[in-house]
Automatic annotation (TrEMBL):
NCBIfam families assigned: pilM (TIGR01175)
Domain SHS2 as annotated: residue spans: 1-169
Transmembrane segments: none
Name used for this protein in its record: Pilus assembly protein PilM
Length: 345
């Protein structure tokens, strides 16, 4: 299955497999930029243009696989953990979930796509199980499905973006000392317009929050400083083809203000929870690999900071251009998590 992540600024595709020894192999990956306004707040505003971009990214990647896993932003999905009696059949569970879902979902059940998954025995009541319900408006699911079908793909799973990025991050946390046990990681995914933060410990999410800050602000600074059009500025930002004073006049102030935003978000977490530190800060998304950012974050917060490379420890197939992939790796966190669903069905 392909992992296909459609964000406000680009479409990202990842395909993984396993070799005979069971190690993960990165078979294909590709990114195709989207113009601003084609996707807004997770909604598809320009269907044909985005579908065409999906076709291009599939072609660019060289994959022949048709099955695809996609995701909706967390803001488009209502999730709720509930406790149900243990030992129910699949059918009985379904009836119970639908009855419970009515309490939490502000739409009629005819208008939503609903699914659930048994997480395991309840920690609080013996003999019961903890069940996760997820629901989204049908039209949002149909939009994602339609984009895949328009590009000749077969949608198999619709996931939640934050769950997919956590799945990919879990592999990286396992590589930390003591296999990441009891380690508190603050994951910041820096998108074009928003940065989402999740604090994770032992696969549990302790806290999550989105803030309106992202890489598009750097593009705006480039436009203001040099008088380029927004499209020109975006493409020069990606290629690094910028005037000599860019590093000092534009990049450094932006990196510093981004580190401050991350510091502020962490302070917010500390004041609204019993916690007062994290063990690691991980950065992902297109702007996370900006020169000097990890150092600026460590300086600002005093916590160790690293860029999340979701392909760390994977074997690369002959189709992968390593230098390009390494430069863009942090952008692929969600799409890599979606591709991993192939092994976690």
């Amino acid at each position: 299955m392909l992992g296909l992540d459609i964000s406000s600024s680009s479409v990202k595709l990842v395909e993984l497999s396993r070799d005979k020894a069971g190690n993960l192999v990165l078979d294909h990956c590709a990114i195709e930029p989207l113009e601003r306004g084609w996707i807004t707040d997770g909604n598809v505003e320009k269907f044909d243009e985005v579908a065409e971009a999906v076709r291009r990214v599939v072609k660019k990647s060289g994959t022949r696989t048709k099955n695809v896993v996609m995701a909706l932003p967390a803001s488009a999905v209502i999730t709720k953990k509930i406790i149900l009696p243990g030992g129910l059949s699949e059918q009985e569970l379904e009836i119970q979930v639908e009855a419970e879902a009515n309490q939490y979902i502000p739409f009629s059940l005819d208008e939503v796509s609903l699914d659930f998954c048994v997480l395991g025995p309840s920690a609080t009541s013996a003999g019961d199980v903890e069940v996760l319900i997820a629901a989204s408006r049908k039209e949002k699911v149909n939009d994602r499905q339609g984009l895949a079908e328009a590009a000749g793909l077969k949608p198999v799973v619709v996931d939640v973006e934050s769950y997919a990025s956590r799945l990919a991050t879990a592999r990286l946390i396992e590589n930390l000392p003591n296999k990441g046990l009891d380690t508190m990681v603050a994951l910041f995914e820096v998108g074009a317009l928003t940065t989402s933060m999740q604090v994770i410990k032992n696969d549990e999410v302790l806290y999550e929050r989105d803030q309106a800050f992202g890489g598009a602000q750097l593009t705006q600074l480039i436009v203001r400083q040099y008088g380029f059009s927004p499209e020109e500025a975006e493409s020069k930002k990606r290629s690094g083809d910028l005037p000599d004073d860019y590093g000092v006049s534009v990049l450094k102030p932006f990196v510093d203000s981004m580190a401050q935003e991350i510091g502020r978000a962490l302070q917010f977490f500390f004041t609204s929870t019993p916690h007062n530190k994290v063990d690691h800060v991980m950065l992902a998304g297109g702007s996370s690999a900006l020169p000097g950012l990890t150092d600026a974050v460590t300086q600002q917060t005093s916590f160790a900071c690293m860029v999340a490379n979701p392909f760390e420890g994977m074997t690369l197939s002959g189709n992968i251009r390593e230098t390009k992939m390494k430069r863009e790796a942090a952008s692929y966190l969600t799409s890599c998590g979606l591709a991993l669903r192939r092994f976690f069905q």
